[in-house]
């Protein structure tokens, strides 16, 4: 059965996602921050984590953004193949929602129209939209507000198959080491392993939207996640880069089959303000 979805619903939902995600960190991220503070053994790091928690409380209470960098809007849109959109073009409906969300939420407009000419578009559009067709008659939208302090420290590399698990872990840890304080730690690390050049990067970005406590289903990938996270925290970069036990809260790896000759690896870093919200329509 085909289900009709009015694109006005899409616009409204996206607008609300923009405002909610930038004002309130998801409960799993807030919990991770709290638990890190409880466990932290370095006094200065503990104090910084306390300040970050206080910042969250103030943002929620006063309805102000968690961070001044309210990000570039990146959306993952899963469309049930039994959905028929009525109204306008669904892409335009999403951009309208972002425009309205950033306007009504008093969020910083951070997008320039041309990478070299650098003129601000004035409304934080265009957003980056990834579509996927899925079974069913629903639409699932995940919105992320990606800050570029951490985006700028992300990397993609084309490893050789012989690099193996150790090569994967070394590249991820080295990416975090090079990021140092610039990515606003504590971090969440999204990793895309396999596929091709662009799919690895897309998986890495999507991995940032997973619940903090989620672990990979495959045992060998789960082992790499845990060991890499352990090595990252052993770097002692710490909150705000001022040393401490908490350099990263979580590390998620998404994988996809790849070519016999290669092993693409993308590492997308997100700061402690890992903002994402989802809705079903
Ligand atoms: S990287 Fe994150 S915490 Fe740092 S300025 Fe950007 S959004 Fe804010």
Largest sheet: 4 strands, mixed
- What is the arithmetic mean of pLDDT? 97
At the first level of CATH, the class of the largest domain is Alpha Beta
**Named CATH architecture of the largest domain:** 2-Layer Sandwich
* Number of strand segments: 10
Can you tag this structure with a few keywords?
281 residues; alpha/beta; 60s Ribosomal Protein L30, Chain: A; four-stranded mixed sheet; 8 helices; 25% strand; binds iron/sulfur cluster
Description:
The protein is α/β, with parallel strands linked by helices. The protein folds into two domains: 100 residues, no CATH class; 125 residues, 2-Layer Sandwich (60s Ribosomal Protein L30, Chain: A). 40% of the residues lie in helices and 25% in strands. It is built from eight helices and ten strands. The protein has a four-stranded mixed sheet with strand order 4-2-5-10. α1 runs parallel beside α4, α2 packs antiparallel against α3 and α6 packs parallel to α8. The longest helix has 20 residues. The two termini are 16 Å apart. It binds iron/sulfur cluster. Iron/sulfur cluster (SF4) binds next to α5.
